[in-house]
Amino acid sequence: MSSRTTFIGAVEIGTSKISVLVGEYTGRELAIIGRGECSSRGVIKGTVVDYKAASESTHTALQQAERDAGERIDTVFLAQTGGHLEGFYNEAAVNVKASDNMIEPGDVQTVCDLAKAKQLPAGRVVVHHIRRPFRVDGRLVPGSPENLVGQRLDVGYWTVHGQEQRLADNIHVIRGFNLEVRELVLSGLASGHMVTSAEERQHGVLAIDLGAGTTDFVLYRDGAPHTTGVVPVGGTHLTNDLSIGLRLTEGQAEKLKLRFGRASVVTKDKAQKVWLDGNFAIGDRQFSQQAIEQITCARTWELLEVVKKKLGNAFTPDTCAAGVVLTGGTAKLPGLAEAAAKVFGVPAHLGEAPSWVNENMRDPGYHTALGLLYYGVSAQAEKPGPGRRGGFFSGVKRLFANS
Amino acid sequence: MTTPAANASASRTWRDIPQPLKPRAMSRGGRWRLAMALVRTGSAVALGGTALWGAWRVAAALGENSRAMPAAAKAVPVKHLELRTAGGGVLDSGWLRRTLALPAGAALMELDLDRLKERLLAEGQVQSANLTRHFPDRLVAQIAERSPVARVRAAAPGAAERMFLVARDGVVYPGSGYDEALLDSLPWLDGFALVRAGAGFRPIRGMDVVSDLLARAQYEAGHLYAEWSVVSLARLESDREIEVVTRAGSTVVFSTRSDFFPQLAKLDYMRDYLAANFPPVRVRIDFTLGREVPVAFAPLAPGADARATAPSLSPGFNVSPSSQPKH
User: Under CATH, which number does the domain B71-145 receive?
Assistant: First the structure.
């Protein structure tokens, strides 16, 4: 690995805000040295719909982060979300070539190439090839199968793919600041990696990142991502429901959602009212708290049901022993963990950043950006290639402690 | 099972999406960063180029250092002497060989270039010289030569009287390789004291002014210049006058206080006027009085020709023994 220090930016172009973190990567360690944040414009459900507006807000956040860091960013890890992202599973098997049945690197390469060989429809490009554990004669092999003895080697890949034009739009927003996109990382993978522990991933855990415009989910099994997905529904839809249901402006509905919204109905008294502003000013109105809770609860449950439906057979309570971990800005909605526990039938809790993350970056809104750096740099380090050495994770452990 | 190459994934990945963007699609900040990146790249290239050039220069300097040379290279004798002379030079490689007088079998690395350079510069005809070794066996002399503007007769220390040439800067030198016709066209100098210095003479003072007159006459009124035989510097320092004697015995006095061109123009007019209205006579025309130009007439001696009498002017040279350098 190169000993040259590079300054890497982690950029999440979200529907409600754009977050940028700057990391100083020495090849062995990463320290967070800068942060930038800006309200998002020109982005709907994770997709750039107004290039100029999205560029301006992204570049503002990038400039702010660079100023905060006092350094120039060289490359960027970019989070990717949106309803256009889909995934499928494909597996392959090879007979071990060697006469002594010892698996060689060629066998591993062959089976991996075969598993990734499935063609995509026109206009679709691969974002991630996520490998599931190898199997040697049906036996699960968490690590590399090289030098193990067996007759048959199996492997499967969960391939995440997206629409080329939409991905290009996101990349071009970054290129408009003359920055290179080094890694494109699924938002759910980034935040999921941040809020789940290695032990939870080993036992099976479902990480759900409820953002403003989209909800990303990742199901981990056997220590690796098993299934990913994106639902183009998020916190703004709750706001929209309140706006329509209670005949409010978007701003008023957002205010009510933040103050009184819940993922479960706890108010029994229909007559219990809450004030819109509570400042006794002219125009201040009263609303039924139960009605607010019913609206937000209904949409939240529906959203969680959609996630469960999209997971299909991949999710069963038995294979998700560590339960459900919730993150993202909308995860702060009270009662969401209880709702998720009921929908999925497993324990659920709000995800927290690891203890070594600095206090001012523990908000769920930063989990994706933090995970981007963590996941992106980890993925770089894990890539086999000349000059790459092990022991990276011991260094990565201190990545965020310095921030 | 098929081979991996045959089954390699043909699906495009996000890395296949071209990242470069046209500057017009960039924000102001992006364009600024792009410009700065280009400046940084340019600076790095310039710095690298400078470093390479420096390294090359250092290597060349080390190559010139005889102590850094292997013994075998030191023993290679000089086989080629090359003379490179600036435009208008008349010296040749034979002159170079005679002047340097290198001992037979002299090794290139053993030559004392400074001493050889002094030897070349000792010839007054050489204005500047630069000697370089070209490995393995070539010595190159690059010189700039002086051009003669006049001539004198004098006796060098311990030698018989002979003709010397005078350059624009007043340097007196024997001259070598010049065309005989060119030498014949040069006027003789008179009326000054030639001072010995070492094996030669000290430069003649005031030659820059005389050279200006001669050059002006040569290029603006060639037919007048062709008639000039002797140029006297006798009253140059005292009266700022230059006296020119033509082949026909006439005398023209030029003033250095005013531009030579009007004086030459007047002379040309007067020459034509005299030729048209008077029989051939010796005249003395004086341009030192400004707008008044006195002309004195004298009868022309039959058969008088300045060219034939030019050597007789040489006694006018005053070689001052008292000003010889003390040894």
Answer: 3.10.20.310
